[in-house]
């Protein structure tokens, strides 16, 4: 088997002194774990590099790739207890670079903190649902776990950097976890159970205040504007003498001055014009119609009522009134 070497160069992320001390302390454990796979590991603190290389006794061709991933994780401040799990067959790792996804630095810091959550609660929920170890460090997110979990972790991280809150993806993962327990639903589509979240605050395109309307295209150029000489030729001023031109200009100036003077005089005189007074009109008392009673209308109603009910012959109004007055006189 050929001898190959893979290098992880550069200083580890985080505090330089603390990381170097931690790597120096745990390096014997790293060498022991790599020695089981017959992989040789060297740590150069002066150059600031970690190197892994195969030996003649190495039997697993993929072991060198796993050793490379191990030193990658160690360089990104992943603890040795978690990083050594990469040497297992059912484990994989994913280094997600998030530094170039958001241009604004303040916005990037806010979204990265949103991924971690208050006291690391969002990250802990993501770890429990995906069975992965997730470490957010600087401009990268290190994930370690099974392949299916790494796929979900990458999706959540990329969506968070695209301003989609991680709680939406965590809810979907929780629903998928419950659906996976039902053997009947394993072969069916889960789209009907998963929530569909829509963006409520869509960024509206700013429209300009002054909208310019495009003119229709014509192959002909626009007409040339008239020069001062053309205007003078059209009005006939071009053929006048100099003194006549001066006299005409003076007359125009005097006319303009007279108009301006009259305008100013009108504005001054406005202050001396008295305002129009409202005419004092006395309110006429409306004649009270309550005391007046239409006697004729009442008489007509009484006649009609008698004719309908009793069938009595029509009685003259004059005779009825005289009979009533005679009775009153006798009573007196």
UniProtKB/TrEMBL annotation:
<protein>
    <recommendedName>
        <fullName>KRR1 small subunit processome component</fullName>
    </recommendedName>
</protein>
<comment type="function">
    <text>Part of the small subunit (SSU) processome, first precursor of the small eukaryotic ribosomal subunit. During the assembly of the SSU processome in the nucleolus, many ribosome biogenesis factors, an RNA chaperone and ribosomal proteins associate with the nascent pre-rRNA and work in concert to generate RNA folding, modifications, rearrangements and cleavage as well as targeted degradation of pre-ribosomal RNA by the RNA exosome.</text>
</comment>
<dbReference type="InterPro" id="IPR048550">
    <property type="entry name" value="KRR1-like_KH1_euk"/>
</dbReference>
<feature type="compositionally biased region" description="Basic and acidic residues">
    <location>
        <begin position="258"/>
        <end position="280"/>
    </location>
</feature>
<feature type="region of interest" description="Disordered">
    <location>
        <begin position="202"/>
        <end position="229"/>
    </location>
</feature>
<dbReference type="GO" id="GO:0006364">
    <property type="term" value="P:rRNA processing"/>
</dbReference>
<keyword id="KW-0698">rRNA processing</keyword>
<dbReference type="InterPro" id="IPR048548">
    <property type="entry name" value="KRR1-like_KH2"/>
</dbReference>
<dbReference type="Pfam" id="PF21800">
    <property type="entry name" value="KH_KRR1_2nd"/>
</dbReference>
<dbReference type="GO" id="GO:0032040">
    <property type="term" value="C:small-subunit processome"/>
</dbReference>
<comment type="function">
    <text>Required for 40S ribosome biogenesis. Involved in nucleolar processing of pre-18S ribosomal RNA and ribosome assembly.</text>
</comment>
<dbReference type="InterPro" id="IPR036612">
    <property type="entry name" value="KH_dom_type_1_sf"/>
</dbReference>
<feature type="region of interest" description="Disordered">
    <location>
        <begin position="306"/>
        <end position="332"/>
    </location>
</feature>
<comment type="subunit">
    <text>Component of the ribosomal small subunit (SSU) processome.</text>
</comment>
<dbReference type="GO" id="GO:0003723">
    <property type="term" value="F:RNA binding"/>
</dbReference>
<keyword id="KW-0539">Nucleus</keyword>
<dbReference type="InterPro" id="IPR041174">
    <property type="entry name" value="KRR1-like_KH1"/>
</dbReference>
<feature type="domain" description="K Homology">
    <location>
        <begin position="92"/>
        <end position="162"/>
    </location>
</feature>
<dbReference type="InterPro" id="IPR004087">
    <property type="entry name" value="KH_dom"/>
</dbReference>
<feature type="region of interest" description="Disordered">
    <location>
        <begin position="258"/>
        <end position="292"/>
    </location>
</feature>
<keyword id="KW-0694">RNA-binding</keyword>
<keyword id="KW-0690">Ribosome biogenesis</keyword>
<dbReference type="Pfam" id="PF17903">
    <property type="entry name" value="KH_KRR1_1st"/>
</dbReference>
<comment type="similarity">
    <text>Belongs to the KRR1 family.</text>
</comment>
<comment type="subunit">
    <text>Part of the small subunit (SSU) processome, composed of more than 70 proteins and the RNA chaperone small nucleolar RNA (snoRNA) U3.</text>
</comment>
<keyword id="KW-0687">Ribonucleoprotein</keyword>
<dbReference type="InterPro" id="IPR024166">
    <property type="entry name" value="rRNA_assembly_KRR1"/>
</dbReference>
<dbReference type="InterPro" id="IPR048549">
    <property type="entry name" value="KRR1-like_KH2_euk"/>
</dbReference>
<feature type="compositionally biased region" description="Basic residues">
    <location>
        <begin position="202"/>
        <end position="213"/>
    </location>
</feature>
């Amino acid at each position: 088997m050929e001898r190959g070497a893979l290098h992880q160069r550069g200083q580890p992320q985080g505090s330089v002194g603390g990381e170097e001390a931690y790597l120096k302390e745990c390096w014997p454990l790293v060498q022991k774990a790599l020695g089981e796979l017959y992989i040789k590991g060297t740590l150069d603190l002066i150059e600031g590099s970690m190197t892994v290389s195969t030996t003649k006794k190495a039997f697993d061709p993929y072991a060198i790739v796993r050793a490379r991933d191990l030193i990658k994780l160690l360089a990104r401040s992943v603890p040795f207890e978690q990083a050594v799990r990469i040497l297992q067959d059912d484990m994989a790792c994913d280094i997600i670079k998030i530094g170039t996804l958001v241009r604004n630095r303040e916005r990037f810091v806010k979204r990265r903190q949103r991924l971690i959550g208050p006291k690391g609660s969002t990250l802990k929920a993501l770890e429990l649902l995906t069975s992965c170890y997730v470490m957010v460090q600087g401009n990268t997110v290190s994930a370690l776990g099974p392949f299916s979990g790494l796929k979900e972790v990458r999706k959540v991280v990329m969506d968070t950097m695209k301003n989609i809150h991680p709680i939406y993806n965590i809810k979907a993962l929780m629903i998928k976890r419950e659906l996976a327990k039902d053997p009947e639903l394993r072969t069916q589509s889960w789209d009907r159970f998963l929530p569909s979240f829509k963006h409520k605050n869509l960024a509206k395109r700013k429209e300009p205040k002054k909208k310019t309307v495009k003119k229709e295209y014509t192959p002909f150029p626009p007409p040339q504007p008239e020069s001062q000489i053309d205007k003078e030729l059209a009005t006939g001023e071009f053929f006048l003498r100099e003194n006549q031109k001066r006299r005409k200009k003076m007359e125009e100036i005097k006319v303009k001055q007279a108009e301006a003077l009259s305008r100013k005089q009108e504005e001054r005189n406005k202050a001396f014009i008295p305002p129009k007074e409202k005419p004092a009109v006395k309110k006429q008392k409306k004649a009270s119609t309550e005391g007046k009673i239409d006697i004729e209308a009442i008489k007509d109603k009484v006649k009609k009522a008698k004719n309908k009910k009793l069938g009595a012959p029509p009685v003259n109004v004059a005779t009825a009134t005289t009979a009533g007055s005679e009775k009153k006189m006798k009573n007196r």
